[in-house]
Write the structure tokens for this entry.
Amino acid sequence: MFRLDNKVALVTGASRGIGRAIAEALAEQGAMVFVNYVKGEAAAKEVADGIMARGGKAEILGFDVADPEACESAIAGAAKRAGRLDIAVSNAGISIDGLVLRLKPDDIERTLSVNVGGAFSLARAASRVMMRARTGRIILISSVVGESGNAGQSAYSASKAALLGLAKSLAREYVSRGITVNAVAPGYVDTDMTQSLTPEQREALLKAVPAGRVATAREIATAVAYLASDEAGYVTGQTLRVNGGMYM
Ligand code: NAP
């Protein structure tokens, strides 16, 4: 079940954290994976080399998701080289935190252009290929705070809420073309993004998670692998929450 043999996947922001775990999980299920990064070429290479060392197929693909032209041409080129593109995961994301009156307009704009603009660009470029094939899986990585909100994370939460509307609208646009579009909304996951929390913030956060612990990146990746599979073909426009009961 949930095998992805002969499929081609692209994961943005796959050099570290959740994206890395997603790339590894999709490769483990048999997919050839394009590992995107923006700065971390060496880290992305390590991910791709690790996949290949375990008998999988992977290639690194550097581009800034906030640059629509770069995104478009890299994805079109990758799909052409591989002969197809079955799975596109919009995972690259940034979080610039601060109370709303302290955020600079540039911080808000950068957060929206990476997190929302990047998802739009990926979905547009991938769906061009998928529409011709009349099959595909687009998965957007949102966040629990896109639904619950979070003081000090207004730009980030707004960007993650936008992805839920985007997933539902694209799901409606593409359902007749065999393309599903879903969001995954993780709770707190142990990655570089959450390393900046103070011990007090961490303790307060854990109190808000009924499961009593943060998630592993692997736990998010396996949810993505399910949505990417043929078995999830009737699931579209949904938000799969993987948050230890933090928000229901
Ligand atoms: P992370 O450890 O900070 O890694 C971010 C990844 O995104 C890196 O691979 C980075 O590439 C890439 N990236 C950043 N800006 C990019 C750009 N402009 N173009 C291309 N790639 C870019 O983050 P994470 O915690 O794994 O989070 C991954 C996703 O899950 C994000 O969308 C985040 O919002 C979401 N999420 C995370 C949590 C959590 O608790 N960690 C919870 C809910 C949702 P480089 O290495 O090249 O910089």
Summary: Strands lie at 8-11, 32-37, 57-62, 87-90, 136-141, 179-186, 239-242.
